Amino acid sequence: MNGIKIAIFDDNDALRDSISMLVKDTKDYTICGSYSNCNNIINNIIASKPDVVIMDIDMPGIDGIEAVKLIRRQFENIQILMFTVFDNDEKVFGAIKAGANGYILKSAAPQNLFNAISEANIGGAPMTPGIARKVLQHLQNQEAEAAKEDYHLSSREKEVLSLLVNGLSYKMIAGKLKISYDTVRAHMKKIYEKLHVTSMTEAVAKTINKRIL
Amino acid sequence: MNGIKIAIFDDNDALRDSISMLVKDTKDYTICGSYSNCNNIINNIIASKPDVVIMDIDMPGIDGIEAVKLIRRQFENIQILMFTVFDNDEKVFGAIKAGANGYILKSAAPQNLFNAISEANIGGAPMTPGIARKVLQHLQNQEAEAAKEDYHLSSREKEVLSLLVNGLSYKMIAGKLKISYDTVRAHMKKIYEKLHVTSMTEAVAKTINKRIL
DNA sequence: AAGTCAATTACCAAATGTGGTAATACGCAA
DNA sequence: TTGCGTATTACCACATTTGGTAATTGACTT
């Protein structure tokens, strides 16, 4: 028994078998466990001690994403590779947030799966091209929504607003900036105008949610 | 002139030349532009009309990340591949947020660069394994911080807090929930205790930032 | 030189929020 | 059944915020 130890969780018996077949011919990989469901996953992991887990998503009982959470709760160092037909945002980001290390679509060529296993094993995050793009765009969108509107706050106003968001009262802001209470008020009035709000809470919520500052 | 049209921006002349050399032997790629800086990037892009841009980060004048922003502002469909020695978070996420489609470290083998170009060209997001892992972990951390603390708010308190975060005053909340002003105050006092805050602004900021609710 | 804009200060009156204390009522668990 | 937690209401005194109006200064532009 040599190479990277792999445990497979997939309810498609034929698929598990064909991966096992492919592995038999290599020295780089070993199948240490093959399971059709995740209902006893913690014990399965303890018994098989894999380096890399190949995880389907749609399975009877505990689904693959829940299974990832369960594994991550106890095992920091196991690499988990999603291997599924799903490419929708919900599944992809659900799996990633649960702690998956890679995401390969079943439509990819078998060789890609093995490349991905090796890559995961050395600390990479293998993904099918389309999935990788989805992940990047998710990050980009977080910014995009931020940078859309400009409220034309002066730098002093931003300074005041920043302190407000950090929980300071007008009086405290005045102290911090060594200006009078009324000056703070004057700034706040301008800020309210520019943000189209009428209270501190609205200003704070809008500032955080719209990523002003 | 056939294949994927590539423009290179890198202040290392030798490196640009060696990539050009490698490309000469292939039919899949063509160098349509080679530039040592980004100071005239928009015109360079218009002149060379690339499918894929290979972009260094550290260059005299406009740096690679700024250049990505400039390109993205006008050209939606050009694939931009970062090709750099930097693997720190600031550069990586800066480039991604600016709109890069892939991120390859110069320490990778030359063949990887060409695979990445092809992958980017078909809509993928090629990344060096370590970079990909960084990106996934960034997404995972966003969740981790969210689900850590439970402030034990009752459902009624969550209801009140939710309205507060949406900018309503105590009086408005009372109206909305058809309870008295003093009841709202009682709830708020409890909420302040549980969140360890002493003002509306702190409560709102903490609720949004810590993803309470 | 006149005009615009940001930053600063001031005062008035009204609305709103904060902290403390106290009481009633309901459901649920020991 | 006693007790705990949640939801509800009430009042007092004080602090803070809000909207309106007005004025001064300095920097930058036309």
Number of strands of chain A: 5
Percent helix range of chain A = 40-55%
* Inertia-based shape of chain A: elongated
Instruction: Write the CATH fold name of the largest domain in chain A.
Output: Rossmann fold
The CATH architecture classification of the largest domain in chain A is 3-Layer(aba) Sandwich
What kind of sheet is the major sheet of chain A? 5 strands, parallel
Helix-strand topology string of chain A: EHEHEHEHEHHHHHH
- Classified by CATH, the class of the largest domain in chain A is Alpha Beta
**Overall number of domains of chain A:** 2
Gyration radius from CA atoms of chain A, angstroms = 26 Å
Stretches with pLDDT under 50, minimum 5 residues of chain A = none
Strand content of chain A: 5-15%
Question: Largest protein interface?
Answer: A-B, 39 and 39 residues
The spatial strand order of the largest sheet of chain A comes to 2-1-3-4-5
SSE-based structural type of chain A:
alpha/beta
Mean pLDDT across all residues of chain A, rounded?
Answer: 93
Instruction: Spell out the CATH superfamily of the largest domain in chain A.
Output: Response regulator
What's the assembly state of these chains? homodimer
Q: How many angstroms separate the termini of chain A?
A: 57 Å
Number of helices of chain A: 10
